[in-house]
Design a protein that fits this description.
Oligomer: single chain
Order of helices and strands: HHH
Shape: elongated
Number of helices: 3
Radius of gyration: 18 Å
Distance between the termini: 48 Å
Helix content: over 70%
Length: 107
């Protein structure tokens, strides 16, 4: 079963790569910039949830339900970030370089 899911993941990755490889460099650069910005926002939000989760773990007045909810939220965010990072990587691979993207508010 593991080979099947590995094969399926490989097929999905090849499909995305071929989709990106057929795009114009200008289109890929726009996608890459948007994906980089999204990744930055996801990381910032993940860090905020992580900090809240660690604070909750150190605070004995926080209920186990709240702590577990924060932990579940953090794990879900990590999975979403991982998937988005994979897409970003594929776009950059097809583009051939990492475009410069100024920090928010500096464009």
């Amino acid at each position: 079963m593991n080979d099947l899911s590995s094969s399926k993941a490989s097929d999905e990755r090849n499909e995305r790569e071929s989709r990106y490889s057929s795009m114009q460099k200008s289109e890929l650069e726009v996608l890459a910039v948007a994906a980089i910005r999204e990744h930055r926002h996801l990381i910032a939000a993940d860090e905020a949830v992580y900090e809240e989760w660690t604070r909750a773990g150190a605070d004995p007045s926080v209920s186990a339900a709240v702590f577990n909810s924060l932990q579940d939220e953090y794990v879900a965010r990590q999975k979403k970030s991982e998937a988005q990072q994979e897409v970003l990587s594929e776009i950059i691979d097809a583009l051939g370089y990492v475009p410069e993207v100024p920090p928010d508010g500096e464009d």
